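Title: Request for sanity check on Agmatine deiminase prediction

Description:
We are preparing a figure and want to confirm that the structure record we downloaded matches what your pipeline produces today. Could someone re-run it with the sequence below and paste the raw structure tokens into this thread? We only need the token string, no images.
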Amino acid sequence: MKIRLPAEWEPQDGVLLAWPHPDTDWSDQLPEVCTTYTELIRQIVRFEKVLLVAPDPDAARNHLSGAGVDLARVAICPVATNDTWTRDFGPITVEVNDQPVLLDFGFNGWGLKFAANLDNQVTRQLKQQGALLPRTNIIGLVFEGGSIESNGCGTVMTTSQCLLSPNRNPQLTRQELEGAMQSLFGAQQVLWLEHGHLEGDDTDAHIDTLARLCPNDTIVYVACDNPADSHYEALQKMEQELKQLTTPGGSPYRLLALPWPEAKYDAAGNRLPASYANYLVINDAVLVPTYRDPVDNGALAMIALAFPGREIIGIDCLPLIEQHGSLHCITMQLPVGVLP
């Protein structure tokens, strides 16, 4: 049996999102966040479809329609949610003998930090409504899409801080988790990062906030060049780790360092996790979070180097980091063969 976890830059049917609503943590900033979601959906439907879950489909539909979004490319399904982080509760698509299969892992609010009883049912709800085509396998492990990166050729990258968290799969050792990734994702090489974090991040250092696998043996990563910043030491250590990583053929990776934005804080003075690594690759484009920061354009330019030939589109995600995530965190790509 041949199992493979496709790379994000492979062809897609669409992207899964969950519409913000008053019962989510977005309640205090709903208009601003809905504006961000609307712009994100507007850009995605230029290239592929959107599968949108919403407890109140009419509210989402009316908002998008009023903003001029092409609803012919948006399928809205009535599904109750706790929140909107589809990267971590949406299905992870693998190929089994060249056919897509959906893996429905357990989601426990990033190690029992937040309620997730509704989010944990979203994939099953979508399958029951006929919104997802492939066979779905329910997996008895806690696993989040933001915690892994794949190059589509057997290499998976992750962080030990997240996967070895005692509130996720405490019964499994590192070796057993690596074995699970081999059997579930077809991983032939697992790259573990031991260092790196972002203040304000609730995920225990998801890899998609720190470093991303890209085509042509390239890794894009966050780099802090300010010795006075609290992130400096850990991210310097992470950079050294990345320099030591090699491909299965023994070659070093081509490393592209993303610029470091100015510190962003919420109203209470808490640092927010602004990361340019939290971008989304879709068909023929890359959607990149921006933060109204002087180095936004530098980040767009660096990601363009990693994805030549794709349109690079900035999306204002300053509202999103108020709830400690960004653009990649609220999306889950759906490879070809997943949508009807």
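Thanks, this matches our download. The radius of gyration is 19 Å.
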